């Protein structure tokens, strides 16, 4: 197996609900893969299943033996009651020398935060420290769950540039989750559209022209507008609407979902 | 008994006189408890488990009553029941029950059933207040050995799992991605908590154990710059509170357990005042 990590026909249930259905994917060395999908489409769930955090109810996930993964979770709330400096955070759980942590903080552009408490960092500094922690394990695969959450647009662009540089320097593959289209299009080798199952996948250009993608995100739109025009995927049957699914009903259904989309 | 006899013949007279002194035994017992409650209390504070400690401690009363009724060692009874309640809470919470409801139901029913059960056991009825409020001045050599063995076991457990516990406390996904099982670490803390409750029951009593866990750790937060420093300082504050509380009890003839907690609370207020002025 040349893939770093592979999922074969996995289904994942969370709280009795099937969140992912029959998903198969793999990541090759050095590849940047982005998982794209609306809120609640199971993006984070897929990452967590690939990492072995969540059990799969069907299918299997296999990792190349000895694979080193650097993981950056979506949300990390650090309780103010815990006194934790950035450099101490970087040594959890594996210890690193002060020289190593300082060098890595410098690499991600925040050399000044080493002795500062994590709870006092700005959003951008915090995300960079999280990335530094993921990089310290010298990963062959970086897994980033919405890494630019809470950053402004210039901050976001700078962060994606940093990830790109890191990939070139270390040769690590990158698997990330996003719901913003414009950034993803330029920064990825391959895009996977997810909505409970894989709707479509391929290079950014191929995917952006795929009808499934357009159905999921709207036609040629970006950002917030895309989410408003989000149309429910037709493979994705609703329990309460499965029978007499005629045109009028489908139309109602669509209108109903405008609320959820926003 | 044999070891104590041998100790008598082998150790110097000075040590024997010290251990014979009830006040010195009380101090040693309190310091032993503070050793365990310091680092464990830090986790209780970080994980917002304050009420969890409370319910485990309340359940210990049921353990006391059952142990007396079945003629078993009291330490064993409190350990088993505390552990049972702690595991029940963790299991129910994992199944999606609201944490405060689960704790409220289990803590107070365990306390109520404990008090009911104690009323059927004559011995328990007489010294029930000793278990509710602690009786540190009546600590025996056997109690002392039990307290220190338990406290050292708790500290050893926490030191051994330190990095994993800290990572799992910070974020369970982060821990799981690093190959740490968050459920296992939670179980380690639950076990340490049950052990600490069993050990501390005699010293501060079931009603004040949670205070001994939280107040020193909260005071240490204002002084510490790293998780490790906070854990150690919490033990130091706890030990100082024991010494101060015993002194207070001696001079003012106040109950020992509440005196210890009161001194810890004053220490917390001082630190909080200081760090506010500094910051």
From TrEMBL, chain A:
**InterPro entries in alphabetical order:** AAA+_ATPase, ABC_transporter-like_ATP-bd, ABC_transporter-like_CS, Metal_Ion_Import_ABC, P-loop_NTPase
* Highest taxon listed in the record's lineage: Bacteria
Tell me which residues make up the ABC transporter domain: 5-220
Keywords, in A-Z order? ATP-binding, Cell membrane, Ion transport, Membrane, Nucleotide-binding, Translocase, Transport, Zinc, Zinc transport
Location of region: Disordered = 235-262
- In what ranges is there compositional bias, type Basic and acidic residues? 235-255
Q: What's one GO BP annotation on this UniProt entry?
A: zinc ion transport
**Molecular function (Gene Ontology), one example:** ATP binding
A Pfam family of the record is: ABC_tran
Q: What is this protein called?
A: Zinc import ATP-binding protein ZnuC
